[in-house]
Specification:
The complex is a heterodimer of chains A (87) and B (374). Chain A has 87 residues and is mainly beta. Chain A has one helix at residues 4-10, and strands at 24-28, 32-36, 38-44, 48-53, 56-70, 74-86. The chains are: A mainly beta (87), B alpha+beta (374).
Chain lengths: 87, 374
């Protein structure tokens, strides 16, 4: 089956030194944010959602943020996404 | 799309920690933090029990559990007594309706009346599908109606279908069984009998109204059996044309002189009148009336009265001088009495003279089919 992320990763063979299997994030029009590879939520509110990923943390800021779907490694956030920052 | 999920409203601290624990086994939908210590999230129905267990074990207070989706509607249905009663009543109604025959369909009948058959079934059998035996219906129909050769009865839904095959009777048995009569006077020349018993033979002279063929036959045991009287009976018929001729007679003709009187009326009232005196000794009159205009408010009418002068002249012509002309006239009168398919056999005439008068009888003998029903 075709996997979009794997396809992109295969084009970046020269970056072998960089770990590419930590997490994937897709921001759809600033309204939906889909994250693969989280390993736990650390903070939740309507304005900010913070979750851990392999090798760091990701902060999502916005308005009326709701976790539409949540599993052990995926998150779908719906709302007005203003900022996605990695630490 | 309506998802089958349960929305759980929870109160407690350190939510992130326990959410992370829950999502290891359970998928969470629409997580929404209402306040610092309250949040709502959804889980699938199958995960509700497990989620509740985790929450209780970790001292979370479950404030509310709301069930959404089709499953909820399904559960609501069974928790509504009115709906259940209505549903059951509908089922019962359908069930009771289905056990009765509502329609009757009769096929294959030509001479037998559909209404008669349906009435017979309705009168003799119940309409309950479970209690009616189609074999009994078939036997009863065959016994009741002589014309039925074969019948099959089936119940299709709420319709009782009767398929009938009628007996094929010889064509001569159909009909009203009335005798075949002579429709004209004549002398029988040819008989083509189809069915029935002949009452005449070739050479017989018959009058109009005589019976030609009786509507029965004698069977092998000497009994009368009713059949349709059917035959083609040809006879020589006599068609007569008569002319009376007078050697002396007065011929009256108009002289050409006339008097016209007219009057105009309105609603029966005389408005104008023009009347002249009639001086003619021998005359004839004609009158007519017509509307002067189409005005219905003033309906003027014109009444005309015309008097024609006549003169009478004595004509003297002996019969011998106009014999051919008179005979032709008599022949024409005889020809008028012939029918479309008559075959002319012969023609003759006779004359009878008395004092100043001659009677010409012209006879055309023709062959025609004279049998028919009165």
């Amino acid at each position: 089956m075709f996997n979009f992320f794997n396809e992109i990763k295969s084009d970046l063979k020269y970056l072998k030194k960089i770990t590419l299997d930590s997490y994937n994030i897709i921001n759809i029009s600033g309204s939906i944010l889909y994250i693969e590879g989280h390993i736990g939520i650390t903070s939740l509110s309507k304005e900010i959602i913070v979750f851990k990923v392999k090798g760091g943390r990701i902060v999502v800021e916005g308005e009326n943020l709701i976790i539409s779907e949540l599993t052990d490694n995926t998150i779908k956030i719906v709302g007005k996404i203003k900022l996605v920052e990695t630490f | 799309m309506i998802r089958n999920i349960c929305k759980i409203k929870v109160k407690g601290l350190n939510q992130e920690k326990y959410i992370n624990r829950i999502i290891k086994d359970i998928k969470i939908y629409d997580y929404d933090r209402i306040s610092k210590d309250e949040f709502i999230f959804g889980v699938e129905y199958s995960d509700l029990k497990k989620t509740k267990k985790i929450l209780i074990e970790n001292n979370f207070e479950i404030i509310e559990i709301k069930k959404l989706g089709f499953y909820k509607l399904f559960l609501n249905f069974f928790s509504s007594i009115g709906l259940i009663v209505g549903f059951l009543l509908s089922l019962m109604l359908i069930f009771f309706q289905n056990i009765y025959i509502k329609n009757y369909q009769i096929v294959g009948n030509k001479d037998l009346s559909t209404k008669e058959i349906i009435d017979f079934i309705k009168d003799n059998f119940v309409s309950n599908k479970n209690k009616i035996n189609v074999k009994d219906v078939e036997i009863s129909l065959v016994n009741e109606f002589e014309n039925i050769s074969y019948v099959s009865v089936i119940i299709k839904g709420q319709t009782l279908v009767v398929n009938i095959k009628e007996k094929l009777l010889p064509s001569e048995i159909y009909g009203d069984f009335s005798p075949l009569f002579a429709l004209f006077d004549g002398k029988i020349t040819k008989v083509e009998l189809v069915s029935g018993t002949l009452n005449i033979k070739v050479g017989d002279i018959v009058k109009k109204g005589d019976i030609l063929v009786f509507p029965y036959i004698l069977d092998s045991q000497g009994r009368n059996k009713e059949v349709e009287a059917c035959a083609k009976v040809y006879a020589e018929t006599w068609n007569m044309g008569v002319v009376e001729y007078f050697d002396k007679y007065y011929e009256t003709t108009r002289t050409g002189k006339k008097i016209e009187n007219s009057e105009v009326t309105l609603c029966g009232l005389e408005i104008y009148k023009n009347k002249k005196e009639n001086k003619f000794k021998l005359f004839e009159e004609e009158s007519y009336s017509q509307d002067l205009n189409k005005n219905i408010i003033l309906p003027f009418k014109l009444n005309k009265h015309i008097i024609y002068e006549l003169e009478s002249v004595l004509i003297e012509k002996p019969f011998e001088s106009v014999k051919e002309e008179v005979i032709d006239k008599a022949r024409l009168n005889a020809l008028k009495k012939l029918l479309k398919y008559d075959i002319v056999i012969k023609e003759f005439y006779s004359t009878k003279s008395s004092v100043g008068i001659t009677i010409v009888n012209y006879v055309i003998t023709a062959e025609r089919q004279i049998g028919g029903y009165l």
